[in-house]
Specification:
Elements lengths: L11 H13 L3 H9 L5 E2 H8 L3 H13 L3 E6 L2 E6 L9 H11 L6 H25 L3 H6 L4 H15 L4 E7 L7 H4 L3 E8 L2 H13 L5 E5 L12 E7 L8 H11 E12 L6 H6 L8 H10 L3 E9 L5 E8 L14
Parallel strand pairs: 4-5, 4-7, 5-6, 7-8
Antiparallel strand pairs: 1-3, 2-3, 8-10, 9-10
Length: 340
């Protein structure tokens, strides 16, 4: 008779990580922090405001959650922002790690907490909107301080044409800037919708399409949640150099997934993570770029799959990621990556 001996793979380090994970999930305020962070990244001050907590106490809870590997922090200018970590520190703890995050999602915030959360979101949006209302005429010059449209626009177009050569019925561009990419979309889609929450910028895009007689382009003064945008209808949704200006980048992925038809493509061009904090004041940036994994995690959480990607290195130190994410249908999808 053969007997199998099961090897005990537990280590002291694993035991410590298990205890830290259990400790982190054993406090109601820490679970509320995880619930709030399900939406996006927030600073210590924002979390204190949302959950009506003193900063000293919040800092203690954030340290416990960070030690447990449930959240991570990164610096944005002069502030530290915290966000969830979706990859556990040890693979053997992945089920418990995921269960804690999923369970935190079930928590219903009190009405005053939800109101303060929305207030933070609206304040971020207003800062961005006010910047573009004041500096719309300088947009092109400010944008070129980091990366010119001529650099990333062609790469975005090449990836889109390679994936959707025949075009389609509907393309939506969120944050069209001065309208240059609308001219690329217009000949290949029956209808193009440009969405922007800054009226001054939308007016500049409108002037551009009038000058180029793009008769199939319409405009919405609003954002990607506008009720007039039909669900499951768009062949592609485009955001070029937009995410670092919006209060909740993760929400844009959710909105794109809702708007796309099965098999549709979400095209994202944005800055990779950088430390040039002057961009906040000079260019109205809310975020100092993003790690590629940030976009991948937001896409997966929204039910989108990775598609083609290009990475563009600039002489001024910025690096641009040109990404595609696909809303799956019954057809098996294949991904490819290339660097430029």
């Amino acid at each position: 008779m053969n007997t199998a001996v099961k090897t005990n793979t537990r280590t002291p380090a694993l035991d410590t990580e298990l205890l830290q994970l259990c400790k982190a999930g054993g406090d109601s305020l820490r679970l509320l922090v995880l619930r709030v962070l399900s939406r996006d990244a927030y600073s210590v001050q924002e979390l204190c405001h949302i959950l009506d907590c003193r900063q000293s106490g919040m800092s203690h809870h954030l340290k416990t959650l960070t030690t447990a590997g449930l959240i991570t922090k990164r610096r944005e200018g002069n502030s530290l922002f915290y966000r969830r970590t979706y990859t556990p520190s040890h693979p053997d703890l992945s089920e418990l790690h995921d269960a804690l995050l999923n369970s935190a999602d079930l928590i219903i915030l009190a009405q005053d907490q939800q109101t303060r959360l929305e207030q933070v979101y609206l304040e971020r949006a207003e800062r961005s909107r006010a910047f573009f209302a004041e500096h719309a005429g300088e947009f092109g010059e400010q944008q070129e301080q980091m990366v010119a449209y001529g650099v990333y626009g062609q790469s975005c177009l090449e990836l889109l044409r390679s994936s959707q050569a025949a075009g389609g019925k509907l393309a939506i561009e969120v944050g069209p800037g001065e309208g240059a990419f609308l001219a690329e979309l217009s000949p290949h889609y029956e209808k193009v919708i440009a969405v922007d929450n800054a009226e001054a910028m939308l007016n500049r895009a409108h002037e551009f399409i009038n000058q180029h007689a793009l008769n199939n382009v319409s405009f919405i003064l609003g954002d990607s949640r506008d009720p007039s945008l039909q669900q499951n209808a768009a062949d592609c949704v485009i955001t070029n150099m937009v995410l670092h200006h919006v209060p909740s980048p993760a929400d844009i992925f959710k909105d794109a997934a809702r708007l796309l038809r099965p098999g549709g493509i979400f095209c994202v061009t944005d800055l990779c993570r950088h430390d040039q904090s002057w961009a906040r004041d000079a260019c109205g940036d809310l975020w100092l770029g993003f790690e590629p994994d940030d976009l991948t995690e937001w896409a997966q959480a929204s039910g989108l799959q990775d598609g083609p990607a290009a990475y563009l290195a600039q002489l001024n130190g910025f690096r641009v990621q040109v990404r595609q994410f696909i809303k799956p249908d019954h057809v098996q999808l294949h991904t490819k990556n290339r660097s430029v």
